[in-house]
Write a structure and sequence with these properties.
By secondary structure, this protein is α+β, with helices and mostly antiparallel strands. Helices cover about 30% and strands about 25% of the residues. It has a four-stranded antiparallel sheet with strand order 3-10-9-6. It comes from Grantiella picta.
Length: about 220
């Protein structure tokens, strides 16, 4: 298939470029679909800004509080706004429903015009991106659960259930608002609390050290 690696199409990864990996699996207790983008060397200022603006969109949609039965398309632009601010955009959907032992891209949940209104207990991906042809691609994808917000009237928000740090090497902190930084810090605390003990239980000390380093406030 065109998606299978071959000696003809494969190439060596380099620390001088960005690497986008979209991964996941289907397990007895749920389906994962997660994308992270990393750079192991020195990213350019534009790469850092583009990555950070994608991350800002991911955070802004993830922490949004909105009325029950709101259509996904109504809130979709929150994931694009930080990119739109500087004339950037991406050409794919902002997220899709996640099926358990069904299709990973599970109809009819999502953020497009023909998706159903969002309700508590739905799982959706949140995945803004940015792509520059023949240069690099960025996508940051998390799975989020629609939950009731702590508001007087019954509003909704998202609870991100993907627990993988973002690449600190690509974050331009000066672009982030205090609210976005607070969100990141609480997300990192959650990752430490849930994933850290499991890595220790499995005696994965190198992975545990990486996690601690990657989730510093």
């Amino acid at each position: 298939s065109p998606c299978s690696p071959s000696n003809g199409s494969s190439r060596t990864l380099s620390a001088r470029e960005m690497y986008l990996f979209d991964t996941g699996g289907q397990y007895l207790d749920g389906t994962t679909d997660i994308t992270r983008t990393v750079h192991w060397g020195e990213p350019t200022p534009f790469q850092k800004e583009a990555y950070t603006r994608v991350l800002m969109g991911n955070i802004d949609l993830s922490r949004l509080v909105f009325p029950s039965n709101t259509a996904g398309r109504t809130v979709e632009s929150f994931a694009r706004r930080a990119l739109w601010d500087v004339g950037l955009n991406y050409g794919h959907g902002t997220g899709h429903g996640i099926g358990n032992f069904l299709s990973v891209h599970e109809w009819p949940v999502g953020f497009q015009s023909n998706n159903v209104p969002l309700q508590a207990s739905m799982f959706t991906s949140i995945e803004p991106g940015y792509y520059r042809d023949n240069e690099f691609g960025i996508r940051i994808e998390d799975v989020a659960l629609v939950v009731e917000a702590q508001t007087e009237k019954p509003f909704l928000t998202f609870e991100v259930v993907s627990l993988v740090p973002y690449d600190r090497n690509l974050i331009e902190l000066s672009l982030l608002s205090p609210e976005q930084i607070r969100y990141l810090n609480s997300y990192y605390e959650k990752i430490r609390a849930h994933v850290g003990p499991e890595l220790r239980r499995q005696r994965l000390e190198e992975a545990y050290r990486w996690l601690q380093e990657s989730t510093k406030p």
